[in-house]
Amino acid sequence: MRKNLTAKQLIERDWKFPTGHRLGYQGFVSEMKAKRQEQLEAWSLRRPMANFEVNDYLAAYQNYPPEEFSEPYSVPDVAYATHLNSMQKKYLSRFKNVRRAWSRVLRFLPEAMHSGDRLRVLEMSTAHGATLEVLRHFGHDVVGNDFSNDGLSSRVGGGTPLRQVNSDIPVENVNEADWPYKPIIDSLGLDVRLFDAGKLPYPFDAAEFDVVLCFDALEHYCHPKDWMKIVDEFVRISKKTVVVRINPIQRHLIPDQAYTPYVQKFYQAMLEYSKSGFRCIVTEAESNQPLYFKLMKISDK
Fold first, then answer.
1. What is the signed CA dihedral for 105, 110, 114, 116, rounded to 10 degrees?
2. Which residue from 89, 146, 211, 276 puts its CA 20 to 30 A from 5's CA?
């Protein structure tokens, strides 16, 4: 039913049922407590559980987004007929977006939730900005990046995922004001810079950020043979930490010997990363593939 609703109807539904639950935020908390009990029972019986998903992480750590995030996006009416109708509908729910982002920070950058240090963080391809919202909640200085690509020409062979890094993209009528997430980002008061992440160098100074994050986006910037060039740029502008999570290889690309072997080389290159004092300290697999890598600066060499 929800997939047939318009953007306006979906956000209006969020106002009626905060957190997507009929009992609002307290209903969500009760649901998490029940899930926590299910986990404890499964653990005591040594019963195998399905792969952890967003709510499973929140319940296991009993660490939930606060109620302030249950308030839906507040955007001007004109945005419904323009920007928001071009967005994927699953990204119109603020609490769902925050819940996913909260889980990612909990898993991949827990020190940002508990450290007393104020970090300057850049998230590449931030979209609706939920990760920035979460990190700002914990007192950090946040900046986002994205790219207004609605005007990408059909002449881009295979799209940006197959281009070489620094190659020009034929564009037609790209207008930053038409970036789909603009009304949401404006309503949240977040600092998001629009530029093509497949073009180097980025418009930032060396070591300008403490942390650079890139979730499920690297594969959209360029061909995997050039992914390490992008990672090197993340390291250039970071002082402490770089977190990268890629999407699973698309099924139609797995047999492609001009693509998949380069992804596998990327796995190994990230595992053995050793530049500017940065080393790989954590890797994690999902969907039977290595998808998550965390680099940290552990020396000055």
1. -90
2. 146
Which CATH topology does 86-297 take?
Answer: Rossmann fold (3.40.50)
pLDDT confidence of residue 154? 42
Structure-token match 């940006």, residue found: 160
184 sits in which H/E element: helix 182-188
CA distance 34 to 59: 9
CB 122 within 8 A of CB 244: no
Separation in Å, CA 27 to CA 22, 24, 30, 95, 174:
7, 5, 5, 13, 43
Q: Helix H segments across the chain? A: 7-16, 24-44, 54-61, 78-81, 94-108, 111-114, 130-137, 182-188, 227-236, 260-271
Mean pLDDT of 128-152: 89
Residue 295, H or E segment:
strand 289-297
CB 206 within 8 Å of CB 199: no
Residue given tokens 């940002």 in the structure block: 112
Q: What is the pLDDT of residues 47-86, one digit of tens each?
A: 666 677 899 999 999 999 999 999 999 999 888 878 887 7
Residue 63, classed as helix, strand or coil, is: coil
Q: Residue 4 corresponds to which amino acid?
A: N
Structure tokens at 293: 């890598």
Instruction: Determine the Cα–Cα distance for residues 223 and 225; give it in Å rounded to an integer.
Output: 5
Q: Mean of the pLDDT values across residues 94-119?
A: 94
How far, in whole angstroms, is CA 181 from its chain's centroid? 14
